[in-house]
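Hi C.,

You asked whether I'd gotten around to modeling the 282-residue construct. I have! Everything is below, sequence then structure, no commentary in between.
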Amino acid sequence: MSCNNKKLTGLITGNTLRPGVFASKGSLLVCGFVGACSWPSGYWISHTQFQYLDIQLISEGSVSVSHNDRSVQVPAGSGVIIPPGNTVLKAVSPGFIRKKHIGIGGPLCLHNLGAMNLDQMTVVPDLADEVFMAYFDQIFDMANDNQLRCSRDFSALLFKMLLLLSEKVQNRAYPALLTSAVAFIEAHFMEDLTVENICRYCRCSKTTLQQLFRKHLDKTPIQYLTDIRMRVAGQLIHEKNYPIKEIAFMCGFNNPLYFSNVFNKYFGCYPREYRKKETDGI
């Protein structure tokens, strides 16, 4: 059973196919849904006793995911693998989040989640690599054929995706400490945030934090924070008519001039120039 934030439903865009309804009764693997969508900030959806392995690939913005008794925040460029159960997904970053998703079910999947290390909710960096997306695109294209005439090939693709997911979870999952740090930064980017604040929250040393970010994200915590602030600033300038000074404060900058200089380094132009280009459609 599912429910959602109906007030924001009209702002959702995308295309999700549900090929599972065409699966034969004895199918060992089923694709319940596959597609892509864009959610406005604040939109949420809740699944009760969900019977699919749910894979969410976040390309823009960030999503909060609560599954049974755990909660994680999934940043842009990452994916989350969610086993069956009770789940709530919510768009938490300003503007819109964009994501792709696929749900895999059937006895061959559900009875082997433990053996494949897919029985725990896991955030995986760079989940949507070239190999994974090749499988995803093939599954989506085949799902457009409502009769699923190549059901054997379809099942084989789903199984290959499961094996790839299992490998990624074992080799590339974010450590819990990094997940906690990323979630803290995503939730507090508008504040006067420092590395010391993050370390205090995560109960770790600056060296440990720096090493985790370098190893898994190829950037420092402050660079990650700046990326978020600039992405949000760009969205606000594009979508809202707020004064530049107000946007600076909303993105955690006490000095509007410093904000403009950082913005220029990030986007190659100053905020007012960026707004003019967006307005003129350049």
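If it helps when you're writing up: The mean pLDDT is 87.

Thanks,
B.
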